[in-house]
Design a protein that fits this description.
Elements: H1 3-7, E1 12-13, E2 15-18, E3 24-29, E4 34-39, E5 44-45, E6 48-49, E7 55-58, E8 64-68, E9 74-75, E10 82-86, E11 92-95, H2 96-99
Parallel strand pairs: 2-10, 9-11
Antiparallel strand pairs: 1-6, 2-5, 3-4, 3-7, 7-8, 10-11
């Protein structure tokens, strides 16, 4: 079965892109566990199958600096492949083209 056929049935969770000048850790909260995902400046985690989860952001010192539920984020434009853009000021959800503008074409996780 093709990925496109699967994508038509499953929910696609947002990815993350770090636009801050320092390393952050995204901590996604699932019912029974947490997943820690480090991001260097300019690095991204691509969207994947699943649901958008509450998440925390930790700074380079490991200290919590933000906590979000998906409903708290401003969505710039509804799009199948969107990213949570971690930046100074407001953290928003943007379509892929806007969120990744100016970043290297690929920086796999």
């Amino acid at each position: 079965m093709s990925a496109l056929a699967l994508a038509g049935c499953d929910t696609i969770a947002w990815g993350y892109v770090n636009r801050l000048p320092y390393r952050v850790v995204v901590v996604e909260h699932f019912g029974d566990h947490d997943v820690r995902r480090p991001l260097k400046p300019g690095e991204r985690i691509d969207p994947g199958f699943g649901h958008n989860r509450p998440f925390d952001l930790l700074g380079p010192d490991g200290v919590l600096f933000a906590r979000y539920r998906p409903s708290q984020l401003r969505v710039v434009d509804r799009h199948a492949f969107s990213y949570v853009v971690i930046q100074r000021g407001e953290i928003v959800v943007q379509p892929k083209e806007q969120a990744l503008a100016g970043l290297p074409p690929s920086n796999p996780q």
